[in-house]
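Justification of computing resources. Each target in the renewal requires a structure prediction run like the one illustrated here; the chain below, 312 residues long, is used simply to show the kind of job we budget for.
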Amino acid sequence: MSGREKFYWLMGGVLTLLVMASLAGAWLRARAATDGTRAVVANLNSRIRAWWAMAAIFAVAFLAGPIATLVLFGCMSFFALREFVTLTPTKPADHVPLFLSFFVLIPLQYALIGYDWYGLFAILIPVYAFLILPAVAALAGDPDRYLERTAKIQWAIMVTVYCVSHTPALLLLRIPGYEGQNALLIFFLLLVAQMSDVLQYVFGKLLGRTPLAPTISPSKTVEGLVGGGLAATAVGGAMYWITPFSPLQALAMAFVIVVMGFLGGLTLSAVKRSLGVKDWGAMIEGHGGMLDRVDSLSFAAPIFFHLTRYFF
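Resulting structure tokens:
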């Protein structure tokens, strides 16, 4: 089966899931009897509508080719970085480093993937940006909260640009017997990470009793993590046929994605709580901002990329 045929089968499965989710949402809305239940169901239906739009966008990007995929993820990094910077105010002395981050680093990071230049892609931000951007800020001559301001910018770039860019960087990998199918690895990563988020939410609402980190993320529960995480891992194992992995390897990879995705969501929730906000933005209906959707991906993508690169 060719990569494109696998993609069509995969999208057929995603479409089926979205139709089932939409029907379930309509049924739940009709049966909701209390204001609290109606609010939960309304939020669920908002998420489902957003998933329809996101699935369509990713499908079009895949069919349009690698360049469209790179542009899509570059835009995601741009909007996520903008949300982070908006919630962590900076000073005029930081304007040049921020300009370089948005209009030089993001295009360059994704262009390096397009040019298949792994060596520079891997060190551009953690080496060159890490050293140059603080120096540029220092040249502005404002030492007030300099370390705090610099740390915010560097953390933002690492999470929203460097880590997220490892998702389309899967296109760089040379996997014997898997030529021309790397885009399916992107879908494997995205589906497992996002299904984990969705299933943890559903299991948490249905079975959640034990708060996991109530001061950081009140909605996360032990039952939601275990039930949703195991279900998402099983989904990943069932998708082994679109990957170069065996069924057992696909399960292991999916488990890693689930664990790292959970840690990413929890870590960035801690950042939000420290800033006194619930969401990073309001860009995506029912989901918050762009960074609310890629928080799990930012931790899962680099680990999945390097495990795949090292072992396969």
